[in-house]
């Protein structure tokens, strides 16, 4: 399966990013959780976003961070050259959408959890 970067990953089971990580893994997807929270989710250690690690072969970025926080990470996320970025509810950001589209990155305003449930992920 294609690799998904979960931006805003959290070890808190009440967070949608946590639920998405588990559902992606249940459906056989390779995940890389990244964020500023420490811990693990769905059997994977959360990667420290502040270190801006060099990550390869990212198919999808699914966002779980508020647009006001995205600006700090926009250039880094675009440098990963994903094929698509999913803007989950509350993460919609016209600036990042425009920048991604200019680079040929597909963008979707959608819910990863709903996409997985509907078989459209």
SSE topology sketch:
Layout: E1 3-7, H1 16-26, E2 30-35, E3 40-41, E4 44-45, E5 47-48, E6 60-63, H2 67-79, E7 84-87, H3 94-102, E8 106-109, H4 112-118
Parallel strand pairs: 1-2, 1-6, 2-5, 6-7, 7-8
Antiparallel strand pairs: 3-4
Question: What's this entry about, in short?
Answer:
The protein is α/β, with parallel strands linked by helices and 121 residues long.
Task: Note down, in words, how this protein is organized.
The chain has 121 residues and is α/β, with parallel strands linked by helices. 33% of the residues lie in helices and 24% in strands. The protein has helices at residues 16-26, 67-79, 94-102, 112-118, and strands at residues 3-7, 30-35, 40-41, 44-45, 47-48, 60-63, 84-87, 106-109. The strands form two sheets. It has a six-stranded parallel beta sheet, sandwiched between helices. A two-stranded antiparallel ribbon has the order 3-4. Strand 6, helix 2 and strand 7 (84-87) form a beta-alpha-beta unit. The longest helix has 13 residues, at 67-79. The radius of gyration is 13 Å and the shape is globular.
